Write the structure tokens for this entry.
Amino acid sequence: MMEQPEFSRIVRLSEIGSTARSGELSADEEERRKLARRFDLPKISRLEASYSLLAGEDRIGFTGQLESDLQQRCVVTGESFQVRLREDFDIAFVPELDIAGAEEEIELTEEDCDIIEYENGQLDLGEAIAQTLYLALDPFPRGPNADAVAQEVLKSEEEAGPFGALAALKDKLP
């Protein structure tokens, strides 16, 4: 059995109906702390989303906007810095796919990338928001001091090139 996600907001299909349903989600302090640990972030101060949910013929549309205030670690300095994210999302919930020969490689199109399968007649809106947050994070975050530190630490192309070491030795010769 799968462990309950840190930020879970279950909606049953029977609650959706045929008209659009709007709402808001907000992660509490404990949920934000657990998500920060899961995503290896120093802190998530705020995670909120406004959304619209609409049942279609073969999918449930989940659209809206996520907003978050969080901290990321700079890849250059290792220092934490503040980030404000605002990300639109357009997710389709579809019934769990029973794909024969699941071992075979399946090629996904761009439209397929925002599809989340559901099972047991339940959607987890909170987990969909958590995944959207994770995908919106900069994979190589650079803090405000990154450029200054990089200039001090990193060598120029001439110094780092194949003849850089020889040039350095030549400068040391009498």
